[in-house]
Each structure stands twice: as structure tokens, then as C-alpha cells.
Amino acid sequence: MLVTAPAEQLLTGFQLVETRCSYCKSTLQESDRVSAYAVRYAGDESWCVPRLYCRTCRSTIGEPTLGATELLVEGRLGWTMDAAIQRTSLTLLGIERVIQSEPEDGRATL
User: pTM of the prediction?
Assistant: First the structure.
């Protein structure tokens, strides 16, 4: 069964692998305001967040990618804890959509 939800809801609590700004490479910390580029390719069920930007280095979706839903969102960083395994992760919180491109927008990539 396919469950649908707004992207903001799906990205809230998203665990981040990289915690540096993709542009200036500054280290981002808890409570920092950030912009995040999120993408979901046609046929995929999950989102990925390959790029994160500090407040100074905000970005935009320059040329949308054909076959991908792309979002630029803003929010802040916060810690989420999984008490069962005693592990914390830096995650996206308070997500608001800034811009979105649909899969039929843009051009094909090689």
C-alpha cells in the first residue's frame, strides 16, 4: 500500500549524513537555520537530501532534472534520539517548502 504525505512531513526528522554546507563547507550544528535540496526520482519511494546549505549560502533549483521531483526547503537542525538503541542523529526540523520542480519539468541528464 502506497502512503502519500506532504514532502515537508516526510522530510521532518530526516537523518543527515553530511553536516557541512555544500557551498562554503562550514560545519552546521544544532539549531542552525539551513536550506536543504531534496530529490525523489521517478519510480523511487524515498527522498534523499544530497545537499545542505547554511543560512548565508542559500541555493535555488537552477535547472530542474527531468524525471525527478526536486525541492528546496528551509528549516533548522535538531537532534532526534532513538531510545531503543541509544543513538542520536542530527535531523531536519521545522521544514517549510521554498520551491519545487515536478518530474515533467526540466531537461534530461546524461
Answer: 0.81
